[in-house]
Amino acid sequence: MDFNPIIIGIAGGTGSGKSTLAENIEKDFKNNITMISHDYYYKSNSKLPFEERAKLNYDHPDAFETDLLIKHLKQLKKGEIIQRPSYSFEKHLREEQTYPVYPKKVILVEGILLFENKTLRDMMDIKIFVDADADIRFIRRLSRDIQERGRTLESVIEQYCTTVKPMHEQFVEPSKKHADIIVPKGGYNQVALNMIVEKIRSII
Question: CA–CA separation, 5 vs 50, rounded Å?
């Protein structure tokens, strides 16, 4: 018999506030929720030298091993424990260590391209798209990549202009039409957060 948790997907552009919203939702449910990021499932590309890995397009659907995420979500729905991958943004490399993820009543999945993949989005009971102005998203990404991921100002700007912005326009923004809920003003929208939390509570 399936464990049958509800799966909630949170998508949106880079720096939109997806992780912030997901973390705020997680606080309300504590032991009844588990969170997975699509970013954990970046392909390794370990055969390429660092310089070449740094130049890859990480905002295209092909950059992710989405089939593995789908497989893991199916296992969690059956009540099985999975070993999720981990990824180093500093090295542009999937790490050898994996982490156990236990099935809970609510599975929260967040990532920029969650709704681009039909199989993945069809598994979700609630689809949330976090919206924010492009300039705010860029500033947040700039700050995060320099402070947390060891990037230079020049590298962040170049990546944003060459891949992040074009891929957002091609894949991320169009996927908004698949959302059940669109949250404006990023992850700090308290009214939207309260509504989402109450909706989840009514389901479980």
Answer: 39
Structure-block tokens of residue 201: 């509570």
Question: Which residues touch 172 (CB under 8 Å, ≥6 apart)?
Answer: 11, 12, 13, 59, 112, 113, 116
Mean predicted confidence (pLDDT) in 50-79: 92
| Domain spans of the chain, in order of start | 6-190
Distance CA 121, CA 138 (A): 26
pLDDT tens for 26-35 read: 888 878 899 9
Distance CA 17, CA 3 (A): 30
Q: Residue 131 to residues 108, 186, 198: CA-CA distances in angstroms? A: 18, 6, 20
Provide the pLDDT for residue 1: 42
- In angstroms, the CA 79 to CA 55 distance is 39
- The CATH superfamily label for domain 6-190 reads P-loop containing nucleotide triphosphate hydrolases (3.40.50.300)
